[in-house]
Specification:
This protein is mainly β. The chain has strands spanning 4-7, 10-13, 18-24, 31-39, 46-52, 57-59, 67-72, 77-82, 91-100, 104-108, 112-117. Strands 2, 4, 5, 6, 9, 10 and 11 form a 7-stranded mixed beta sheet that branches. It has a 4-stranded antiparallel beta sheet with strand order 1-3-8-7, with no helix packed on it. Strand 9 (91-100) and strand 10 (104-108) form a beta hairpin.
């Protein structure tokens, strides 16, 4: 079972920046999608951004132009650079890994809190 270890959350003022990291332990399948979800109090978990094994990326509309997802394949690590943060970005951010190799294997990180003060 792949373990996902997140880091980089914290408290920042509006307009500031944070960088989240998520490292996957062990080897992962050749075909995968890795990314970040977030869940604010009283709201459903939503997909923020992801990147697949081919390098294609997806961003939800509310973060386009502000967040950038990238990866280090050698380190099995994905990063989320968050700029121009807004109070509405406040949430617990969860790393997610979906691996595809005959079946779909899903792993989740423990979550990291991001708080943006106004």
């Amino acid at each position: 079972q792949v373990q996902l270890v997140e880091s980089g959350g914290g408290l920042v003022q509006a307009g500031g920046s944070l960088r989240l990291s998520c490292a996957a332990s062990g080897s992962i399948f050749s075909f995968y999608v890795m990314g970040w979800y977030r869940q604010a109090p009283g709201k459903q978990r939503e997909l923020v951004a992801n990147i697949n094994s081919g390098g294609s990326t997806y961003y939800t509309d509310s973060v386009k132009g502000r967040f950038t997802i990238s990866r280090s394949s050698a380190k099995n690590t994905v990063y989320l650079q968050m700029n121009s943060l807004k109070p509405e970005d406040t949430a617990v951010y969860y790393c997610n890994l979906d691996q595809y190799g005959g079946s779909r294997l899903t792993s989740w990180g423990q979550g990291t809190q991001v708080t943006v003060s106004s």
